[in-house]
Amino acid sequence: MPAANDLRKGQAIRYNGDIAIVLEVQHRTPGNLRAFVQAIIRSIKTGKSADVRFSSTEKVELVEVERKELEYSYKDRDAYFFMDPETYETIQLDASLVGDSKDYLVENLKVMVLYTEGKAVEIELPPTVTLKVAESAEGVRGDSANNVQKPATLETGKIIQVPLFIKEGELVKVDSRTGAYMGRA
Description:
The protein is about 0% helix and about 50% strand. The chain is mainly β. The strands form 3 sheets. The chain has a 5-stranded antiparallel beta sheet with strand order 4-3-2-1-5, with no helix packed on it. The N and C termini lie far apart (about 45 Å).
């Protein structure tokens, strides 16, 4: 079994008899104390996140994770439907599993779905997503002295800050990790 020092984001581990996905990992060495690993993990059963601390030499049990590329198709009530591009099979995922990723899902977007023990546990979005601006107020002339921004509603319903020159109907690149405007598409 590997040590806690070898933990990486996206890995699945067995913690307290449950399988958990590692969301964030930080290696810390405070002053004259022993090194430790601070990790944020999310339980697959409950969906709750926890902040846990491991000794740097503590052994952790890794669980095999399978990654499968799927294409987003559509949403129906509390379920999201994806298509496997190899088998053309339709796969249904719960809204609780999709979570905040829903703000970036547009038709035919390719995402990576992580499976452990045959069950979908997490969706990995591409780093940047191209979305259409559905609604945006007009920029006021003369406000260009500084980097002035205005709110814009995207086709998925997410509201982000964009520069004044962005108009309705334009395609913009959005960072799926931070939700920040990156530029025109």
